[in-house]
Each structure stands twice: as structure tokens, then as C-alpha cells.
């Protein structure tokens, strides 16, 4: 059961981070190169400036213990979640990474480790 929980939690964290492919680039009107990664970083910077912590996630079945972890992210850090249709893009992955960096800045570098451990403890109180 513990291995299932740890595997499921690792899978969930992968969803939050995303699995980016190579960033695509496009030429904009001024001749500068804009990447989807830059777009994700810019969107995250705007939300952080507005005081919002958001994680973009896919609408997939939740593994055991996932709900406990997301509740802790909401209650301790103020995260909200935005469902993304389809696969997470490079922009989504960059956005999430910027959000995670901000959460670490505000709550400590080990915030995700602490919340993962607490979720595990709450989910499997007998261990």
C-alpha cells in the first residue's frame, strides 16, 4: 500500500510539473523570438504579481492520497488549480515551475516535501 501511495504521489507531482517537449519558437512582429516557455513564465509572473498561486493540471483520475495533498496545497499555500484540456504544454510546464519557485520562496524550499509527507501521514494514519 505504501509503495502504491508513493508511486501515485510521484505520478501526481509529474502532472503538476508537466512533461514538456522542446519549446516551440515563433517570430513576433518586432522580429524577436518568443518561446512558449517565456509565455508560461510571463503568465505566471502576472499571476504572482496579482497574488495568485495557481497550478495548471490535467483532468486525469486522481491516485490514492492525491486529494489530501491538493487540500494541503490549498490550505497552507493558497494554491488553486486550473484544469487544462489535453496534454500540458511547454507553457503550462514553465508556468507551474515558476509557481513552484514562488511557493518555495514564500514557504521554504522544502514546502512540497513537507506537504507530501503530511499528506502521506494523513492518508495512511496507521503507518
Task: Put the structure in a nutshell.
This protein is an alpha+beta fold and 127 residues long. It contains 5 helices and 4 strands.
Question: What does this 3D model show about the protein?
Answer:
By secondary structure, the chain is of the alpha+beta class. It has one domain. The protein has five helices and four strands; from the N terminus they run H-E-E-H-E-H-E-H-H. A hairpin with a 5-residue loop joins strand 1 (25-27) and strand 2 (33-35). Helix 2 runs parallel beside helix 4 and helix 3 (66-77) packs across helix 5. The longest helix is centred in the last third of the chain and has 18 residues, at 90-107.
Keywords:
single chain; alpha+beta; two-stranded parallel sheet; 57% helix; 14% strand; globular
Amino acid at each position: 500500500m505504501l509503495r502504491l501511495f508513493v508511486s501515485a504521489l510521484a505520478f501526481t507531482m509529474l502532472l503538476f510539473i508537466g512533461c514538456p517537449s522542446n519549446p516551440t519558437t515563433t517570430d513576433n512582429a518586432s522580429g524577436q523570438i518568443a518561446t512558449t516557455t517565456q509565455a508560461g513564465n510571463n503568465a505566471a509572473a502576472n499571476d504572482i504579481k496579482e497574488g495568485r498561486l495557481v497550478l495548471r493540471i490535467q483532468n486525469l483520475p486522481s491516485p490514492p492520497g492525491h486529494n489530501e495533498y491538493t487540500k494541503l496545497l490549498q490550505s497552507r499555500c493558497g494554491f488553486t488549480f486550473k484544469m487544462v484540456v489535453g496534454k500540458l504544454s511547454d507553457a503550462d510546464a514553465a508556468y507551474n515551475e515558476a509557481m513552484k519557485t514562488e511557493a518555495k520562496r514564500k514557504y521554504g524550499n522544502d514546502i512540497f516535501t513537507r506537504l507530501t509527507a503530511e499528506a502521506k501521514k494523513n492518508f495512511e494514519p496507521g503507518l
